[in-house]
Design goal:
By secondary structure, the protein is of the alpha/beta class. Helix content is 27%, strand content 28%. Bound molecules: NADP nicotinamide-adenine-dinucleotide phosphate (NAP).
């Protein structure tokens, strides 16, 4: 089967198409013919060697976490799934494995049936960003129409899910996006939008109960200026040092810095499946073919896209 692999950390040019054998499955696993893979920033952070502590430096490595596809074979202890089911899911260890291949073998606990109302490309967009949004919402505590939330970097994958989940809770949401993202943020439920290319949220004087930074550029010292007393700063792009030190620092400050590390689970994907049922929008703004993998990552890494980007393995056209 064709797969994407790389033999050194680096930019998109290290991503190469290679031939490997189709994986065999364990009793608890399913073999899936991959239809689509969605791109996450984590994919290129691993590929660039930014996660070396966790990924190690053994090559070849594979890429892509979130996928959708069709079940080809089920392990002997798998129940609830059968050959031919359309599913979406994640690879078990994205530091070592990758979904960008014609076939993946994953535990049945990491796949979910694709809802009929969304496409396979949309389903591949759900797991990492969607699960992160559900977990972030859970960390925000009780939310109602009096809760003022600032979502910085709101027009990407994580923001797309989070804005809609916040809207469903009735929160008062301000989204910070680039110019192209403003109308999408409004469509996804933002009450107010700040175009970061024209305005700096730090100078506008508004205060929020919760600030979440999806751009990874704000930092606690800046976020603090935007928070009410007892406000919380949710940080899904923490530095390793923050993960260790923030629980202690938080003991001595009223504005808390909460780091967020998430993974798709039965619970958070279950919440998303319910939201899809209720009309959650999943915007895949650009689709590339498998042979365009390098171009797909170059496009994503440049930024400026809306929602999610997918690589469709069933087509050779962009
Ligand atoms: N901790 C976890 O478990 C977890 C889980 C999922 C994701 N994450 C992380 O969360 C982050 C967001 O994920 P994502 O999938 O939504 O990534 P994404 O699609 O790249 O979204 C990031 C957004 O930030 C915006 N942005 C860039 N510079 C900005 C600035 N100066 N001010 C305001 N916004 C700015 C980008 O807009 P433009 O491109 O238009 O500039 C983009 O829409 C990533 O770093 C990802 O790795 C963490």
């Amino acid at each position: 089967m064709k797969t994407i692999a790389y033999k050194a950390f680096g930019n998109t040019s290290v991503l190469q198409t290679t031939e490997e054998s189709i994986p065999s499955i364990q009793p608890d696993q399913v073999l899936i013919k991959v239809s689509a893979v969605s791109i996450n920033p984590l994919d290129w952070k691993i590929r660039k060697g930014e996660m070396k502590l966790m990924s190690g430096s053994r090559f070849p490595k594979h890429t892509g976490t979130d996928f959708s596809g069709i079940i080809e074979e089920t392990g002997s202890s798998v129940s609830g799934f059968k050959k031919g089911d359309e599913v979406f899911g994640v690879v078990k260890n994205n530091m070592k494995e990758g979904a960008l291949a014609e076939y993946v073998a994953v535990p049945a606990s990491l796949i979910w049936k694709k809802p009929a109302q969304i496409t396979l490309n949309q389903a591949a967009a759900i797991p990492t960003a969607g699960a992160a949004a559900v977990t972030a919402l859970g960390k925000m505590g009780n939310i109602d129409s009096s809760t003022r939330v600032l979502v910085n970097g709101a027009a990407g994958g994580f923001g797309m899910f989070l804005l809609q989940l916040l809207k469903a809770k009735g929160a008062n949401v301000t989204a910070v996006t680039s110019t192209a993202g403003t109308e999408y943020a409004q469509e996804w439920g933002a009450d107010a939008v700040i175009d970061y290319r024209n305005e700096n949220p730090l100078t506008l004087g508004a205060r929020y109960d919760i600030v979440i930074d999806l751009s990874g550029k704000l930092g606690y010292q800046n976020a603090k200026q935007l928070l009410n007393a007892r406000g919380i700063y949710l940080d899904p792009v923490p530095r390793p040092i923050d993960i260790i030190t923030t629980p202690i620092k938080n003991l001595f400050r009223s504005r808390k810095h909460i780091t967020l590390i998430t993974a798709p689970s039965q619970e958070n994907i279950g919440t998303l499946l319910q939201a899809v049922e209720n009309g959650l929008q999943i915007h895949v703004s650009k689709v590339f073919s498998f042979s365009q993998t390098q171009a797909a990552y170059a496009y994503a890494e440049k930024g400026g896209y809306i929602g999610k980007i997918a690589i469709d393995l069933t087509t050779q056209k962009a």
